[in-house]
Amino acid sequence: MAHRRNQISIHGIVKARRASILLASVASGLLLSACSSIPGISSLVGPAAAPALTGSIGTVVADEPQAALVGHDVLARSGNAADAAVATALALGVTLPSRASFGGGGACIVSRPNSPAESVSFLPLPGTSAGGDRPASTPAMLRGLYLIQHQYGSVEFNDLIAPAMNLASNGVTVSRALASDLSVVRTALLADESARAVFGRGEAGTVTAGDSLIQQRLAGFLERVRSAGVGDLYNGALADVYATAAQKAGGRLNDEDLRKTLPIQTVALTTQANGLTAAFLAPPADGGLGAAIRYTTGASAQGAVASWRASGATDIAAAQAALDSGKSGSGSLPSLPASTSFVVTDRNGMAVACSLSENNLFGTGRIAGNTGIVLGASPASTPRPLLAAAILRDRRGLRAAIAASGQNDAADAVGEAARAVAQGAEIAHSGSGRVNAITCASGSACHGNTDPRGAGLSAGTTN
Fold first, then answer.
1. Tens of pLDDT along 171-209?
2. Measured between alpha carbons, how far is residue 18 from residues 5, 59, 210, 457 in Å?
3. Which is it for the CA torsion 175, 176, 180, 183, positive or negative?
C-alpha cells in the first residue's frame, strides 16, 4: 500500500448502549451532538487511551440508524470518510439485511479535495450452475468494500469488520426500516427454514421494531473473513463453502462464479456549470447517468436510463458523451429492485456516497447455510436496480454528497436534489425517491439531511 495503515480496535459496540440505540432506531432525521455516539468502545486509532476527536468531525447519513452510528464512531476516532463508509456498509449488512446483505452489491462515488471523483461499482453476477429453483447473485459486497478501503482508506480493512461482527453476535435492535421490509415479505421469507430461524417470531410472525435480532452464524462468517481475509470468499475455502450452501438453497452458484466477481473502478461522470463541478456514479451503475441528465436538463432520469440500456452501450466514454450531448432520451423501465443509500463526509473534505442492493427485497428470500447471509437475487432474473449518487464541489470545497433509494425514482431523486443544491434551495423530499444528503454552505459547515418520511439517521458532530 502507498501509505501506512493506522490500527483500529473496535469492541463492545452493542450491549452498553442497547437503550440508546433503540431510541435512535425510532428517530428520524436526528442530528447527534456527542463526539462519539457509542461510548464504551476502545479507541479506533492509536493507543487505547487516546481521546475521541472533538469539533467538526464529519457526518454520516443512512437509512438505518445503528449503521450510521457505527460510521460516526469511526469518524470520531480519526477514521476518514472512506473508513466510515466501509464500516457503515458492513454494519448495514447486519442491521438492514433486507437491502444491504453481503450477498448483494452496490456502487459508491468517492471524492477527495483537489482530485477527480471516482466511481466504484461492485455489482453481483448471475450464477451459472444448472438447476436450482431460486437463482442467486454472487456476493459482490465485500470485494467492492475492500477495494474502496484499500484505495482511499486510512486503516486496515479487517479492523472495520469488528463493529459489524459484534452487532451480529451481540444483537441489534430491529429498526423501523427493517421491520417495515419484513412486513412486506413476511410470508415468503418464513417459508425458508433458515430465514425463519433468524427473522421469525412465533408461529407466523417476524421480529418487529424494538426486538433484538441476533445472527450468530453471520457473526461467525464475518470472523472467518476477518481472520482469513476477503480473498477467502472468492478464491479460497470459504468460496467453496458459500457456493455449496447457495446451491443447497437453490442458488445456482459455483466457485468460478465467485472468482469472476470483481469490482470496477473508473472516473466518475462529471459536468461543470456556474462554478460547480458535479460528479455522478458511472456505468455499470447507470442510475448515475440518469441522475446527471436530470441535473443538467431537468428531464426524466428513468427515461434517460431506459434509452441508455436500450442502446446496448456500457462504457464510461459513451456515458460521458451522452451526458455532454444534452439529449435526455425517453422510455420506461419495469418495476425495479429495492435499494438503500448512505453518504459520509469527514473533517478534511473527503466525501463518499453509496447505493446498495440485493436485486430484490431480501434477495432470494433464502440464507446461504451456515454463513448466515441472505442470498442476493440473480441479475439474470431481475431488472438491474437504479444505483444513483452524486457529489458536488465548488472552488471553496464540498457542496453536497447525495444518494437515494426509491426503486424507479432513485435516480430522479438524486438529480433533483443536486439541482436544488446548485440553485441554493432546500432539498424537497417528495415523490417515491428517498434522499440521504449532506449539504455544505459555500465555505462553511455541513449538515446531514435524511428523508423525514423514512426511518434514517443523520449522525454528525459540530461545535
1. 999 999 999 999 999 999 999 999 999 999 987 799 999
2. 31, 22, 10, 16
3. positive
The tens digit of pLDDT for each residue in 261-288 reads 999 999 999 999 999 999 999 999 999 9
Residue 250 CB burial class (10 angstroms; 0-12, 13-18, ≥19): middle
Pairing mode, if any, of strands 200-201 and 264-267?
Answer: unpaired
Range list of β-strands (E), 52-202: 58-62, 105-111, 118-122, 172-173, 200-201
DSSP 49-85: TPPPP-S--EEEEESSHHHHHHHHHHHHTT--HHHHH
DSSP SS3 for 246: helix
> Among 174, 157, 160, which residue's Cα sits nearest to residue 215?
174
Compute the distance between CA of residue 117 and CA of residue 112 in angstroms, rounded to an integer. 7
Sole residue written with cell 433486507? 98
Orientation of helix 65-76 relative to helix 157-170, angle to 10°: 140
Q: How far apart are CA 24 and CA 459, in angstroms?
A: 10
